[in-house]
């Protein structure tokens, strides 16, 4: 039977939704147990949140001032030490997980399985390749532990209602001192986080300018949605690049995605493959976005968005 250890992703004392998505993926293994490990200077608050995820047996905490910042080279030896007792070690396929999990895999002497979107067996997984245009089945060696990143867009968050035991996990490993935290340069926004928002409104080159993007922000506010953008809009300087959705941007799976003035290039569609309802607004009735949209509105966005806003009010 499988025993799964999930590495919790958290920032500023809050658990990221990616952790509950990893729990969903772990549940697909029908394992004997699922544990979550929280590494932090003071892990109590995050651990209490993690303990509420249904299906989790234990939340292990590793309190260490060296874990105040998520430095992969510092955290990986601690996770590898704990991971030796598990058949599977999962982390999210986010920037955090993509940085950390290959280090964990290397320390455990295995190859990492990346971007798990489906589980076929204890060592058999499906993942997308070529920007989501093909799906491959990956077989991990049966006699080794599996270290994997979980494609968060492919899994729902596991529910709440759990009451896992929270236990301090003593980890006695030498931590590298050659890597130090210098600072984090992150965009600040009061809006919902693009990667975990249930609704997203994205604007493309058709919006025309940074000033015009106000119409996208206003409409998103009406819906309580996060704002995204196509690469063309980012490259043109309409919005910062952390809003980019797609192959070289963020892969997202909101319940509602509204694409405004976006043509629907394959590299953009890769980022919204797992979205629920897709609404497209474009003045070109032949735009490829309409081939995948559930609801398509052909017309000028500057006319249609105010009309939709009025209808919502
Ligand atoms: C390696 C690689 C990686 C890439 N990664 C990404 C990625 O991650 N994300 C991404 O988005 N792209 C990515 N691209 C770029 C991608 O190929 C497209 O160029 C880009 O998505 C186009 O953006 P767009 O739809 O906003 O612009 P366009 O293709 O120019 O489309 C603009 C649309 O707006 C419509 N429009 C114009 N005015 C109005 C109006 N007034 N009202 C309504 N509609 C209007 C037009 O009809 C048109 O369909 C990548 C490309 C490469 C080569």
Give me the secondary-structure topology.
Elements: E1 3-7, E2 10-11, E3 14-15, H1 17-27, E4 33-40, H2 44-51, E5 58-63, H3 72-83, E6 88-92, H4 95-108, E7 112-116, E8 118-121, E9 124-129, E10 134-139, E11 146-150, E12 165-168, E13 199-203, H5 214-223, E14 226-229, H6 231-235, E15 256-260, H7 266-269, E16 277-282, H8 289-292, E17 295-298, H9 301-312
Parallel strand pairs: 1-4, 1-6, 4-5, 5-12, 6-11, 7-11, 13-14, 13-15, 15-16, 16-17
Antiparallel strand pairs: 2-3, 8-9, 9-10
**Which ions, cofactors or small ligands are bound in this entry?**
flavin-adenine dinucleotide
The H/E string reads: EEEHEHEHEHEEEEEEEHEHEHEHEH
- The averaged pLDDT comes out at 94
Separation, N- and C-terminal Cα atoms: 54 Å
Total number of beta strands = 17
Low-confidence stretches: none
SS strand fraction: 25-35%
Q: What topology, given as strand order, has the largest sheet?
A: 7-11-6-1-4-5-12
Q: Can you give the helix content as a percent range?
A: 25-40%
What's the alpha carbon Rg, rounded to whole Å? 21 Å
SS summary, helix count? 9
Structural class: alpha/beta
Outline = elongated
Largest sheet: 7 strands, parallel
- Assembly state (oligomeric): single chain
């Amino acid at each position: 039977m499988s025993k799964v250890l999930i590495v919790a992703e958290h920032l500023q004392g809050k658990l990221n939704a990616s952790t509950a998505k990893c729990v969903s993926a772990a549940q697909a293994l029908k394992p004997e147990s699922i544990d979550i490990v929280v590494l932090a200077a003071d892990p109590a608050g995050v651990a209490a949140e993690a303990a509420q995820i249904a299906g989790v047996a234990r939340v292990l905490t590793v309190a260490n001032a060296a874990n105040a910042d998520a430095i992969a080279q510092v955290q990986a030896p601690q996770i590898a030490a704990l991971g030796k007792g598990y058949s599977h070690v999962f982390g999210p396929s986010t920037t955090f997980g993509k940085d950390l999990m290959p280090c964990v895999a290397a320390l455990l002497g295995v190859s990492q399985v990346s971007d798990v979107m489906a589980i076929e067996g204890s060592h058999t997984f499906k993942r997308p390749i070529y920007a989501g245009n093909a799906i491959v089945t990956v077989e991990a060696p049966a006699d080794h532990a599996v270290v994997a990143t979980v494609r968060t867009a492919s899994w729902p968050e596991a529910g709440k209602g759990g009451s896992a035991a929270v236990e301090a996990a003593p980890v006695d490993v030498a931590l590298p001192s050659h890597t130090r935290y210098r600072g984090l340069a992150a965009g600040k926004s009061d809006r919902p986080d693009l990667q975990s928002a249930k609704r997203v409104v994205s604007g493309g080159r058709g919006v025309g300018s940074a000033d015009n993007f106000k119409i996208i922000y206003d409409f998103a506010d009406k819906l309580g949605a996060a704002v995204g953008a196509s690469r063309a809009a980012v490259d043109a300087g309409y919005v910062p690049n952390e809003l980019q959705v797609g192959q070289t941007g963020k892969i997202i799976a909101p319940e509602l995605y509204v694409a405004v003035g976006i043509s629907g290039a394959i590299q953009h569609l890769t980022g919204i493959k797992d979205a629920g309802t897709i609404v497209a607004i474009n003045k070109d009735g032949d735009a490829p976005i309409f081939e995948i949209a559930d609801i398509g509105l052909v017309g000028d966005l500057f006319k249609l968005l105010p009309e939709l806003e009025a209808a919502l009010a």
